[in-house]
Sequence to fold (273 residues):
Amino acid sequence: MPLTGRFVVLVRLAMIVGMTWSRKRKLMYFGGALLFAIVLVGIPLFFSVYERPTCFDGVQNGRELGIDCGGACSNVCKAPPGSPVVLWQRMFQLTPNSYNAIAYVENKNLDVVARDVPYEFTLYDERGFVIAKRAGAKDLFSNRVTPIFEAGIRTEKGQPIRVSFRFTKEPVWQESVGVFPDIRISGKQLHDAAVRPRLEAYVKNHTLSAVYNLEIVALVFDLEGNAIAASRTDIDALLKDESKRMVFTWSDPFVDTVARIELYPSLNLPILR
Fold:
């Protein structure tokens, strides 16, 4: 290669190297300025808005196992509420195509309640086919048994031999704000059990205010502790210290010996504001 050509190549290489180093210096200057800005502005700004997790801020953060409990907090987390327990379910024939169904449900949680928990009764024939369903919703008070009663379930496609009960959604638990009202049952008397059973009893409101939409479920048990009959009556209002007479009737005689009768009052949870 002629000398002149070599000189031109060297000059171009020098220009490329110079441009590369120039660009690198510019990037270094820019990066240094950006880092300086982060240190000077970003870090103080972060600490000015950052709230250090504490055990009293009402939020599960840091190493907490729950809201302001567990981990570094001295408060012990409560166990999550357990599901309501369905102790048993039964059905009782009214007419060839009509049945009552009842589920005996217990909320064992001591300090939480649930409102409008949806449920479903399902009746099956001897082949296991579903021949009737009935849905509803029920409030569950804390630490209390709640019989759930559905009357007059129609069956048009066969005779049921089995009933099931289930909650169709998990309860949404709320902290209990009180206790179940002091509603007392007295004077239970069963008449004509072998002919046309009729149960009479009295209910009295011992609270300081009226209660509304009161349901009373009557359960009749045999010597082995099995429920052989059930019924329900509704009371629109029961004033303070008021007492009312209740009557439950059945069209068919009780074949089994009646060992005990239980009456369970239930009502809607108060509205939490």
User: Anything to note?
Assistant: The radius of gyration is 37 Å.
